[in-house]
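User: Show me a protein chain along with its predicted structure.
Assistant: Here is one chain, sequence first, then structure tokens.
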Amino acid sequence: MARKARTREATVNDRLAAALDAMHPRWVVEAESTRVFADAAAKAPDIVVRMPGGLSVVIETEYAPAADVEAEALGRLNMTLTETGERVEQVVALRIPESLSEVRQAVLSQALTQAELDYCVLSSVDGRSVERFPARGFISGTADALAGLIESIAVSERRLARRSGCSRTEFPMPRPPCVICSCRRGGRRWTRWGRRCTKLTASRPRAWP
């Protein structure tokens, strides 16, 4: 019996990038693009999300159990972006469900938007240390929840501190958005910057182990 073809991670990346791009028309989302990094043009991030007035966020993906995805994500931090000259401050390490590797490409996009994805955020602090959110485990949620998280973290703490004329210690940043707690106002989830994001649904990310 012929072995069933496995869907490549690059194909999933293309579909996930298209899904995120469709959710936010003002975003520019690309998968497997080269020349993203000025200091390593040949190193293509799995996905890069660019948004007006915000920070570019890199996403590194791997099929579960994704033993190397965090190491890959860590390697992207502090790299210089060719387009803006700024360094990468936020990278999402994402575990793709192994079950998607056997989904036919004709229905892959739909399956991907409905799948539960596991992810965490690695953040560069002053270019010297790294913070992980959550501290252990992963957040679980759909692609829609992932988009809400990306929107929340795509603000440069360094840029905000520079605009305010104070240092990071004088201008403390709140923790990442409350995507795992029950705090809500008017039935909506609120980001760390006080802006409304997508309405709470059954697909809201659950707490990590």
